[in-house]
Amino acid sequence: MTSETFDVVVIGSGPGGYVGAIRAAQLGLRVAVVEKDQIGGRCLNYACIPAKAVLRSADVIQEIREAAEFGIEVGEPQVDFPKVMARRDEVVGTLTGGVGMLLKKHGIEFVEGLGSLTEQGTVSVAGRELAATRGIILACGSVRRSIPGVEFGGRVIGTEEAWALSELPKRLAVVGAGASGSEIASAYVRLGTEVQLFEGLDRVLPSEDADISKAAARVFKKTGLDVHTATFVTDVVSGDDAVTFRYGDADGSADWLAIATGRGPDVEGLGLDVAGVELDETGLIKVDELGRTTRANVFAIGDLVRGPALAHKASEEGVIAAEVIAGHSPHPLDYVDIPRATFCMPNVASFGLTEEQAKAAGHDVAVGKVPYGVAGATTVYGDRAGIVKLIGDRKYGEILGAHIVGSKATDMIQEVVNAKLLEGGYPELATMVHGHPTFSEAILEAARAADGWLIHG
């Protein structure tokens, strides 16, 4: 086994790993990145980016179907699914190629193979031993999890496979109406597939504010989704051409059954036990507020550790780990202020506390909730079916959370996040001049509603 020495070794090249590696290189450290699959990790190759590429195609066909409302007459659009998937592949190739170029630009060595920790605190990969004199960053991401009594295989697939089908299915069943399941269902139903969406809890997008979930459910059903909440899928049997199952007291069948009910940390083969890296009670790697594990100079980030399983969260944790290794003193992340984005139709975005959570925490809660229609731009663009809901503390004017459902929500949420992080409250947000006519004026009006002086309502 050949031995080589670096300042930092990163295992995993996804949004957490490659960003952490680049930040370490920027700080003057010699870095190697180990990847067992494709550069860019699951996010760029199988999850976030492929999903958004397919969802964009679904957005376009929806806009074409609604063109007559704007005085544009077109025929019924046809889906060329192989071309949809070819564009997905092109998008993935462009972005993963970009990551590869960035690693080369910063002089980072890319090592292919399954990396595992050793008792000596090095990384073993493909017959090479990589020593890290300053630190190791574990950024391996997550793996799919099934539902009780059901194994993946045949016609039972995970989210990665759902975004990589070679043919447009006629019938698709999706188990789990969180962000991933809702995105899959929303994409395929608009592309022409008959889609059933199942959720064991009592509403879709159950981690979102209740008002937002209700609004999203209305649009889901309008687009043709067959939604079943408080419903569990059982007795799954995968056949040659279809998969059968039970839901409640009914029998169901589909071309594919996609399970999107959660993921677990990808730690198999990582050598955590050998290296003395401990897990917490949930099975995630135990870390402090700056990502340090129980083994000196070994850090863990992203889906391997606590906090929301989001690519942008992993990236920031990668930056923090790199800066700690380089001797800097970065601030830890405040998970509650990390924005969440779901790219279904309608878009859903949020951060912070829901109304229910804020009340449970003992706040004197101020709520500013307005329909998209308060902003003139939404009428111009034909996208009035949305809601902006701000949650604040009445005593201090503090922003506790924001929740948006509707077009452009995933971009709009950042304004409220920024206002809070810059120590602005909803009274300040209510007096900030917004461009007209823009969708963001709905945020302005929601802040005014929270402050007690809504103009357009």
Describe the 3D structure.
Helix content is 32%, strand content 24%. Strands 1, 2, 3, 4, 5, 6 and 17 form a seven-stranded mixed beta sheet that branches. A five-stranded parallel beta sheet has the order 8-15-9-10-11. Helix 1 packs parallel to helix 9, helix 3 crosses helix 4 and helix 3 crosses helix 6. It is α/β, with parallel strands linked by helices and 457 residues long. It has three domains: 214 residues, 3-Layer(bba) Sandwich (FAD/NAD(P)-binding domain), CATH 3.50.50; 106 residues, 3-Layer(bba) Sandwich (FAD/NAD(P)-binding domain), CATH 3.50.50.60; 106 residues, FAD/NAD-linked reductase, C-terminal dimerisation domain (Enolase-like, domain 1, 2-Layer Sandwich), CATH 3.30.390. The chain contains 14 helices and 22 strands.
